[in-house]
Design brief:
By secondary structure, the chain is mostly beta strands. It is built from no helices and seven strands. A seven-stranded antiparallel sheet has the order 3-2-1-7-6-5-4, with no helix packed on it. A hairpin with a 4-residue loop joins strand 6 and strand 7. The radius of gyration is 12 Å and the shape is globular.
Length: 82
């Protein structure tokens, strides 16, 4: 797996499970442009941040042993890796 630039946001495609038990959304894997699919090992924490009239759903996840943050923008339905 390539190193992730921790100072940059990048759009990604995410496979997520919606409406699962007490967690309304859980990212399962993601794909960066030009790369193969990367599996999310564990969901650590979730939070919602409101920016104006947009809700940003933030997911702290583990990918292997590396901690990452995925963000879902409810206004334009896009995912980013931070």
């Amino acid at each position: 797996m390539k190193n992730f630039n921790k100072n940059k946001t990048e759009r990604v495609e995410v496979m997520a499970l919606f409406g699962y038990e007490m967690t309304p959304c859980q990212p399962l894997s993601f794909r960066r442009r030009g790369e193969s699919e990367t599996e999310v090992t564990e969901l650590i924490a979730t939070q919602i941040r409101f920016v104006g009239d947009t809700a940003l759903h933030i997911f702290d996840v583990l990918v292997g042993r590396e901690r990452m943050r995925l963000e879902f923008n409810s206004r334009d339905l896009s995912w980013q890796i931070i």
